[in-house]
Amino acid sequence: MGARVGGRPADLGPARQRTVLAALAIDVGRVVAVDRLVERVWGDGPPASSRATLHSYLSRLRHALGVTLTATPAGYVLEAEESSVDLMRFRKLREEARSRDDEHQARVLTEALGLWHGEPLTGVAGDWAELTRDRLVRERAEAELDLVDARLGLGQGPELLAAISSRAAAFPLDERVAAQHLRALAQAGRVPEALEEFRAVRSRLKAELGVEPGPLLRAQHEQLLSDPEPRRAVPRQLPSAPTQFVGRDHDLTALDDALRDSAVATIAGAGGMGKTWLALQWAHRNLHRFPDGQLFVDLRGFSPDETPMDPDVAIRGFLPALGADQNAIPAGSRASARLFRDLTARRRLLVVIDNAATAEQVVPLLPGGDTCRVLVTSRNRMDLGTAVALEVLADDDASTLLAARIGATRLTAEPLAVARLIDLCGGLPLALSIVGARLLTEPDLSLAAIARQLEELGLGALDADPSVSVPVVLSWSYRRLTDRQRRLFTLLGIAPGEDIGLTAAAGLADESIEDTQSTLRSLEQASLVSISGEFRVRMHDLVRTYAAAQTADGREEALRRLVDHHVHTAHAHDRLIDPYRPLITLGAPATPVVTAGDKAGALAWFDAERDTRRAVQRAAALHGWNDEVVLLARVSHAYHQQRGHLDDELAMWRTALDAAQDPADRVVAHRIVGSTLGQVGRFDEALHHLSESVAIAEQVGEALPIADAHGTLAWLWASRDEHARAFEHAKAALPHYEKSGNQMLIAMAHNNIAHCAVEVGDTAQGRLSSAKALALLHDLKDRHGEATALDTLARIEHECGDHETAITHYEHALELFQEEGDDYSSANTLINLGDPHLALGRRDQAADVWRRALVLLERQDREDEAARVRDRLGSVGPG
Hints:
- By secondary structure, the protein is mainly α.
- Among the domains are: 4-80, Winged helix-like DNA-binding domain superfamily/Winged helix DNA-binding domain (Arc Repressor Mutant, subunit A, Orthogonal Bundle), CATH 1.10.10.10; 155-231, Tetratricopeptide repeat domain (Serine Threonine Protein Phosphatase 5, Tetratricopeptide repeat, Alpha Horseshoe); 249-389, 3-Layer(aba) Sandwich (Rossmann fold), CATH 3.40.50; 395-459; 483-553, Orthogonal Bundle (Arc Repressor Mutant, subunit A), CATH 1.10.10.10.
- Helix content is 64%, strand content 6%.
- The protein has a five-stranded parallel beta sheet with strand order 7-8-9-6-10, with helices on both faces.
- A hairpin with a 2-residue loop joins strand 4 (68-72) and strand 5.
- Helix 26 packs across helix 28 (610-622), helix 32 runs antiparallel to helix 33 and helix 37 (763-780) packs antiparallel against helix 38 (783-799).
- It is globular and about 95 Å long.
- The model has no long low-confidence stretch (mean pLDDT 83).
């Protein structure tokens, strides 16, 4: 525990003296009996001198803290405002949050949890302290769970999924956490995974506690079962509303007017003017106008170390939130933009586009129809919709902003000094926020003295020029930081990407997670960073530029640790996503690795780090750390394929190809660049890279790279309906896979041969290879692979005229695909299943499975395939 006097830490003395303060503070304003106080400090067996020592401790605390410790006939009381004790403020805020709407609860609980700094009663010993510490930790945990419930009520499950998955892994028998996990998975559109998670939790409860799930968890499960068909996705991508927003009433009214009739409004103003905060404040005040959700993207138009985001990348971030199946998102930018317009055409959505550099960046992101509204922020004026030019804060609003930080009493005591501070900061909200945070830590210094400090650093009345005023204010604030805070602040300035997670920041600093969290909270209190509910840390562009310009020892070593953190953490999560992939051998991590407990958590971690991971790889490439560049691409491969992030896949593997020195790495890089180009329909480029992969693999002479290269060429030719060529490459791959000894890859090679064989009419070879694949995959307990093999075998039996056997295999494959939550493959199998039914004259059954397929295809926006199924349905009539 700690205390501050005049903004500075106070010396609380030895452990028992600290316990005295804690024992009184926890009952602030209430009498604590002497006997109870002695018991709290010394336990059941106090020494004879305990009362005399207690008087001594109380006297020292009065002197050290300047607080009123009143003796009464019944005991002692700490006379202080409850608001001066963080625990009391925390409890009052928790009480305020009860019985309020989800948005209010989320805001208040976030503020309450922000009062916690490390472990409660740090440095206080004894039985009472231990018991109290445990109780307080439980209070904090309950508040955290309350906050999660509130945010889930706001539909924020997808962005919470990583944190919830980690908590579910840490507390596998906690039913409230499990229920939140199911709810977050469902909100992320992953209902099959949620159902599987319920089954896993139920098994654990029965095996370890001998009980069935309780009412809360059962109710969540029943809700999943009662609504198995996912409703239309309602995106909730807005960051939280600003907690200390003041003023701007005129600008908010201007936005109301602008977006009442116009589809687009732009907020233009210099850096540090508060454009993003204004946009978010308006958005949260008008959520009721947009029942179909909100989209948000930071286009990074003015980031000091990032190129502006390509509009197609932003669209591909929007599409899954709108319900588009990742595997069905079209490859080209025009096609994806057309899909985005189609999905938004009849919805009432708000799209917030932050930090746009040019109108050309924004235009492709404009939704279809006339029911959506778009709010754009930029430092540049652009000819889009209605413009709201953001100016510096008026003096009254600037005073209100400072008062929110330091209190109105102190402000009214020195009106001339306040006016001077506002003038020195040029009315810039960013500069005023930093000054206000610093003022809070120096309550014993007059505002006039602080204004003189700023003037001595060269800050004059700067007419709101942020390129001059913000660095000077930052310099003044930077000097006040402790060595640890200053070092982390500087290192954050060089961290790649727009934000950073807590464990990554700990790796960057080479500090424990607890110490890093405490330091980051201190930087947040100084208004130098912002921290989201998922503990993603961001810096304003101007602050980042200043931080990066400061000197700090070991900057390159810190960046190397951060790269190492991403390599090892991504590798651990990659094993959860695809445990059958060949192992990658890594050295020992430079810092501890914290991983999620399951596949859902692993995917959520990759989701959270998606943009940052690419920035980390670019930083590694700039420093010539070529092995890490390749590794980052390799450990992201399964995630990119699972999520359908082919743009990221291609970008990271092109970077890896440029960096790869080892021929074996070049084989892999050419192969995956080639296969990804094939996935997006760029056949000639794909064939070039895959041919290079085969040529280099044969020079290297290792079995697995040769096999993979031939296997990918088989897939590429098959995608072009060149099945004879595909058959040759599929057969060429098998002996090399057999040399590798990897049973999973051998099984898939047999399945590839079977698939190609049936296409060229060699059904005997197809049946033989399918049976081998099926047996291996069954033994490996790979249910998804088994389903794939069954689908191939069913196709062969249908071609051979054994339609009943084909139906049996298709239905088994469909059952396995559905258990695995693979709706994409389920749709394909349903399409195929109609053919043997029709061949047997069962027109009604064929129509039924095609209608089921059509539902999935339409949900996945696979319009070309859906059109073909509609034609089939038309051909069989209205059965």
